[in-house]
Amino acid sequence: MEKMSRVTTALGGSVLTGRTMHCHLDAPANAISVCRDAAQVVVAGRSIFKIYAIEEEQFVEKLNLRVGRKPSLNLSCADVVWHQMDENLLATAATNGVVVTWNLGRPSRNKQDQLFTEHKRTVNKVCFHPTEAHVLLSGSQDGFMKCFDLRRKDSVSTFSGQSESVRDVQFSIRDYFTFASTFENGNVQLWDIRRPDRCERMFTAHNGPVFCCDWHPEDRGWLATGGRDKMVKVWDMTTHRAKEMHCVQTIASVARVKWRPECRHHLATCSMMVDHNIYVWDVRRPFVPAAMFEEHRDVTTGIAWRHPHDPSFLLSGSKDSSLCQHLFRDASQPVERANPEGLCYGLFGDLAFAAKESLVAAESGRKPYTGDRRHPIFFKRKLDPAEPFAGLASSALSVFETEPGGGGMRWFVDTAERYALAGRPLAELCDHNAKVARELGRNQVAQTWTMLRIIYCSPGLVPTANLNHSVGKGGSCGLPLMNSFNLKDMAPGLGSEARLDRSKGDARSDTVLLDSSATLITNEDNEETEGSDVPADYLLGDVEGEEDELYLLDPEHAHPEEPECVLPQEAFPLRHEIVDTPPGPEHLQDKADSPHVSGSEADVASLAPVDSCFSLLSVSHALYDSRLPPDFFSVLVRDMLHFYAEQGDVQMAVSVLIILGERVRKDIDEQTQEHWYTSYIDLLQRFRLWNVSNEVVKLSTSRAVSCLNQASTTLHVNCSHCKRPMSSRGWVCDRCHRCASMCAVCHHVVKGLFVWCQGCSHGGHLQHIMKWLEGSSHCPAGCGHLCEYS
Questions:
Q1: Cβ(561)–Cβ(579) under 8 Å?
Q2: How much is the pTM?
C-alpha cells in the first residue's frame, strides 16, 4: 500500500521531492546503486540490469543494459556501483569472476567498456575510490582483492587476505589510501593501497562471517560491520587497537549496513535471510530500532540512501522483484510500541521491576506495598538532553531484595540433597521423601508422597514406631497397615463398587456405603446420617501426630466380647470411658474360629475405636487392589504432576517421574518429560549440585536426557610407568609395552573401576583396596605410605 505523504528537500541547487512508492521489476534484484545527482538508480541481478529514473510519483525505466541475443555470465551481477564523480561510469561484479565497467556515454546500444578477468571465483563486491575517477577495487570469493586502474587493462596491485573469501571492500572517505575488507572467518583488515604485501591492521570483529562494512561519512575513524552473528558493531579505528564503540543486536544475519546521512548515530540494516524488513537503528539505543520499513515480501538484497546529504529517502531492492523508495516519515517506529514496564524474579527471590520514569516521579512519595522487604533501590540513567529519544518513555529500575535467610531457596537445596530416588522399595522411598518434605515445612508435598504410597503400594506391616501412635502403648503385635482417605476427597463412583448385601441375618456388622451422590453411613441404631450437614472432617475426627495413617485390627481377630462402635451423631465425639486393651493374638484367633461370625463380616468395612480421643474411618482393604484396574489412578497422578510443574516445582514432578517410572511415564508425552528434566537439571547446576544433577540424568526416563552425561566427556589417561599418554583403548601402553593399571593387591590388570591413593599413586581394584584397608592402613604396594579410603 502506497502512503501519500510527500517530502521536499532542498539540497544546494537541487530539490528532492517524493513519496513512498514502489515498482515491479522483471526479476529479483541483487544490488542497487544511486547516481550522484540522486535522479537515477541502477538495479542489477542475475537476470536484470536496468536504470530507472526516480520521478516524483513513480519509477520510470530509462535504459536496459542487458543487450545482445546470447545470454552471457558477464551480465549476471552480484554487485553494482555507480561512480560518485563520473555520472556515466558504472562497475559490476559478475558471478563468473569478471569485473565489468560500463560507460553510459557511449553512443552504441552496448555500453560495456572493459572486462577484467583476473579473479578465479565469484566477485562479491566492487567499489570506486571516492576521489580518484580511475581507481576501482574488487573483492572475490577466491580470497584476493585487486585494485584496477581503468586506464590500463590489468590490475595494478593484488591484496591477499589469507582467508577463504572476501565479502566486502570499502574505501575510506577521509583517508585517501585506506580501505577496509571483511572476510568469512570473522576478521576485518585495513589496507594501504600503496602496500599490497601486508595489511596495516587486522582484528576479529564477529563470531562468524562478516558480510558488510561501511565507513561513517562524518567521523573519520568509525567503521560499521555486520555479520552472521546477528550483530552490527561500530569500531573506532583511530586508536592503536580497534575499539568497539557500539553493538546492535538484530534478529537475523546482517547483509547490508549503511550510515544515515546527517544523522551521526543512525544506520540502516537489512537481513540476508528470514527477516524481510529494513531497520534504522540509533546505535545508542541498540535493542529497539528507531524506524522500520515493512514494504518488502522477501529478503531485501540492497539498500542505499538516495542522496549523501538527505536523511529522508531510502531506496531498496529485494528478491520479491520490487524496487521501493521509503520515506522516513512513513516508517513505523517500534520504540513507540515498546513496553517500558518489566518484571523479573532473581534466582534467590529478588524482584526487579522497571516502570516509566514519569510514573515513578509522580509517585515518589508512595508507600511500599506489603510485599516489599526493603525500600526499593532506584537506578536512573542520566539522559543527555541532546538525544533525539530523550523525550520518549524511559524506565527506572526498582529492586526489592529478600531479607537475608528469608524467602530463599534453601529448601530446594535441602530437598535435592536429602531426597531418595532409587535403591529402596517404592513404599520406603515415598515414606522417606514425605518425611523430608514434612521436616522442611512442605506439608502439601509430604501429603502427596503419602498418597502415592497408598495408591501404588499394597498394605504391609506397621513399623514399630507407629504402633504406639496408632493403637496405644499396650499393643505389642504387628498390625496390618490400613490405607486411609477422606470421604470428601474420594473419587466419584469409587464407593459404588463397595455396596454390600445387608440381608444376611440380624447379626450384621456396621456398613459403610460410599456413593458419588452422598456419603451414607448406616447401622442398626442410626439410619439418619445420609445428607447430613456435618462436615466430613468432623464426622471422622481429626488425626493428630506425625503419621496421618490409619491402622486396623484384622476383623477376623477381633475380640469376641468387644463392643462395636459407630460414628457419633455429634460434631465432636463425647468423652467416654477408655475401653479395655484388646487381648493378645491367642484370643484373636478364637474369634476367627467362632461359629457365630458371619462369613460376610470379614469383607465389610468396620468402625473400631482406636483411641479414646477420636474416632476414625477404617477400610479393611487397599484402595489399589485387584478390583480396580492398574491405571485407575493414572489420570489423577498425571494431573498432579502437571499441577506441580505449572506451579514451578519441577523438582517434585521429576522426582515422582523417576520413582514411579513406567507406572506414570506412558501417560505423559516425551516432550513434556524432557522439558521437566532439563528445567530441573538446569536449576541443580545453577546451585552447583553436580552430584544430584548427575544422578537425575542417570535415573531419567527420557532418552534425550539420559545421554547428557555421556556426551562430550573425555578422560585422559597416562601410563603409570613411562608417564606418557595412553593412545590406545587397551590396558597396554604403546610406548613401554607394559600394563598401565595393575592392582597392588592381586597384581592383575584392572579392567573396571580403579581406585588409587593420591599420596603414593598406588591403587587397584576397588573391592580389593577396600578390603585391604579394613585390616591395614599401610599401602599394599609396600611403599610404606599410610593410605586412607573414605
A1: no
A2: 0.53
